[in-house]
Description:
With 454 residues, chain A is of the alpha/beta class. Chain A is built from 14 helices and 15 strands. In chain A, the strands form 4 sheets. A 7-stranded mixed β-sheet of chain A has the order 2-8-7-6-5-3-4, sandwiched between helices. A 4-stranded antiparallel β-sheet of chain A has the order 11-12-15-14, covered by helices on one side. In chain A, strands 1-13 form a two-stranded parallel sheet. The longest helix of chain A has 39 residues, at 332-370. Chain B is α+β, with helices and mostly antiparallel strands and 130 residues long. Chain B has a single domain, classed as CATH 2.40.50.100. Chain B has 3 helices and 9 strands; from the N terminus they run βββαβββββαβα. Chain B has a 6-stranded antiparallel β-sheet with strand order 1-2-3-9-8-5. Chain B has a 3-stranded antiparallel β-sheet with strand order 4-6-7. At the A-B interface, loops of A face loops of B.
Amino acid sequence: MAYLFHTEADRREMLASIGADSIRQIIDDQVPAAVQMHRPLDLPPAIGELNLESEMRRSAARNVSASSHVCFLGCGAYDHFVPAVVDEIASRGEYYTSYTPYQAEVSQGNLQVMFEYETLVTQLTGLGVSNASLYDGGSAATEGVLMALAAGKQRSKVITSDAVHPEYREILEAYLINIGAELIVVPSGDDGTSQAIIDAVDRDTACVLIQHPNFFGRLEDVAEICRATHAAGGLVVQSFDPISLGVIKRPGDLGVDIAVAEGQCLGNPLQFGGPYLGIMACREDLVRRLPGRIAGQTTDRRGKRCWVLTLQTREQHIRREKATSNICSNQTLLALRATVYLSLLGPHGLQETATHCVQKADYARRQLTELERFEAVHEGPIFKEFVVRDLADNVPALLAEAESRGVMAGVDLGRFSERYRDCFVVAVTEKRTRQEVDSLVGVLSEASVAKALS
Amino acid sequence: MTRDTSKLHYAETHEWVDVGDDGIATVGISAFAIEQLNDLVYMDLPEIGKQVQAGDEFGEVESVKAVSPLYSPVGGEIVEVHGDLPDNLDQLKDDPYDYGWIVKIKLGDEGLPESLMDLAAYEKQCSEAG
Lengths: 454, 130
């Protein structure tokens, strides 16, 4: 894109044509004096490009990242391996600015990517149809619930549990507060959350939102939740971990109606929290309620294969007051990366990746909870995350000390809930080596000695 | 059974109503409306038990041209929904008055709204619109 500048003469001409003396005057006319700052911004003086670059480098070097540290952070964003071919393909100029024009069919390459992405997501989830992606896992979960509420007509109850990501629930609350739906969050017990959810389901339940594997890394009894919810006439929305589907059953096979996910783990770097990728698929008969857009494959008038926007939420163009979603775009570049990643791995590669996660997480849990200071909060199978209780109840200091020694040991659960203030979540991806897990255990065990003395 | 279109009541918004002796109103959309809409691709139906007032939107029909709300010509409770209809929209087009019924509504106390038209008045409205 060209950089368009205007000269002082351009400015004078524009001001003259609207009859203003200066830009200052336009601001004074439009912005009440009470809200104006009346002083310059408190910024250091401008510096040259050479100095600026070294200043930026100095600042950037202070960042702590998954490249500088060994990363055991999880809770929705994970340090999975990103093969070089993902960057190679995604950085091609034709894809890198992947904004679809209003006549989307002009961009055949982008539409083909969306179509292939959707095909992979339907294969991954075992559901009939996928959209071309949403913004992130949290908004995808919310859109899944909004969709179920629209399908549920007069049903107004949404049931979820504290084992669903707290940030996803915050997004959901923010949406539901204005549409008259009732959100019920059931607490999880020691034996999981599934039974509590099932007990809460009634004839007024539009949907149940679950996360499986859940926020604590544990598995839910999804099939049983689906059976009970469907018996009451409601729908089940499952937030899943795409990598986990290499070893656990697909949402569609478990009876889930709408499956949503954070797709960052599929070939997308952590990049300090975003942009990420919202994945969303559903049963084919719910396709009209699926937000966003769906690319499809067809043939042109010469009989050649081509791609089109098959369905798009009409509400964004007409009848906006009826809209059940205000999603107007998607994350094509990140969806492309997920497409390349999934194509490269294939079903066997995904299974291998997932198996590594399970085995390494299990090893880390056993090693860590052998230390006197720590105990596992939950028993039973996990995928790649688990909750550890710090019996010394000093999680923030513990994690800070580990970080100072080059290990990002986990996410402090006290950030989200007072109930888990002495707990943290450890995530172990296929990238972590046995040596790295051992160093995590070593760093935390040494920290524990230091704390015990103090 | 074949419905006699001259015995039906019509709403300005192109729904027809057939009130049975049992106080149950059968509701559909007119052949004129279907012709105007062109090829139908989707229909969204309400749930049984929904209470509607005359003029309330109870569903919608989508054609290749537009999305149109379906307005209830009468007030009452929806007691039956033609669930197979959305999958057989071609048949709705061929047979709008018999196969093509959409919902059955148990009439509320206010009965039939006076604004409903007979066939002659409705045909006049259509010819003026057309």
